[in-house]
Amino acid sequence: MTLYLPSLAQDDVRFPPVTEALDHPDGLLAIGGDLSPARLMSAYRNGIFPWFGEDDPLLWWSPSERAIIQPTEFHASRSLQKAARKSGMTVTLNQAFERVIAICAEIRGPEQTWITHEMQAAYCQLHHQGDAHSVEVWQGNTLVGGLYGVSVGAIFCGESMFSSTTNGSKFALWQFSQYFAHQGGQYIDCQMMTPHLASLGAQPWSRHTFIDALHAHRDRPIADGYPPQRLADWRIT
């Protein structure tokens, strides 16, 4: 079957309306363009994200359903709370962005990851300009879990996470959810719904509902001091 997609111009970072995204495959919206910081931020501000393989053209998506976590409703199971208290793990923010994104790519292997070298370089640019952030989980001096994503006002668009120890990525998302809520953050966009995300409190939202929330909060500033340098002083309750 032939797919007809809008081709993005190199000198124009605008996207087609997300209502024009395909039903099959769900959410495929456009092709081409580049991964410049301006285009990436234009995408996230409109509920769009890039997703493509190493040998694929640049593909842009806005699926009909989004997985959304409201930070105050993150579900921390009793077993997670107990394990976190005993683990001695600490959490930092923006202390090892390049390592986090590289590990997220490595653990999936070259045949499965969409986090290509081109993608890593692009998100590192976003990080250096203050729009992309990482959360790191440490066991002593060893990085054992983390996640990264893009901030759009009071919404955090999560991209990927990893864990090399039990509960490492859950701990990262839990701690970040607590802090983000305290600073006035409203929603964490996890993109695609999975049973794992559902177990952590993610809810399926329609594209329309998500876009409405995004437009309402994408220009909303959150508290001074965000992002901080460390989350380690946040006590688990």
Automatic annotation (TrEMBL):
InterPro entries: Acyl_CoA_acyltransferase (IPR016181), Leu/Phe-tRNA_Trfase (IPR004616), Leu/Phe-tRNA_Trfase_C (IPR042203), Leu/Phe-tRNA_Trfase_N (IPR042221)
EC class of the enzyme, as a word: transferase
Top-level taxon: Bacteria
Gene Ontology MF, one: transferase activity
Primary location recorded for the protein, binned into one broad class: cytoplasm
EC number: 2.3.2.6
Keywords: Acyltransferase, Cytoplasm, Transferase
Catalysed transformations (reactions): N-terminal L-arginyl-[protein] + L-leucyl-tRNA(Leu) = N-terminal L-leucyl-L-arginyl-[protein] + tRNA(Leu) + H(+); L-phenylalanyl-tRNA(Phe) + an N-terminal L-alpha-aminoacyl-[protein] = an N-terminal L-phenylalanyl-L-alpha-aminoacyl-[protein] + tRNA(Phe); N-terminal L-lysyl-[protein] + L-leucyl-tRNA(Leu) = N-terminal L-leucyl-L-lysyl-[protein] + tRNA(Leu) + H(+)
UniProt-annotated location(s): Cytoplasm
NCBIfam families: aat
Family label: Belongs to the L/F-transferase family.
Protein name in UniProt: Leucyl/phenylalanyl-tRNA--protein transferase
Gene: aat
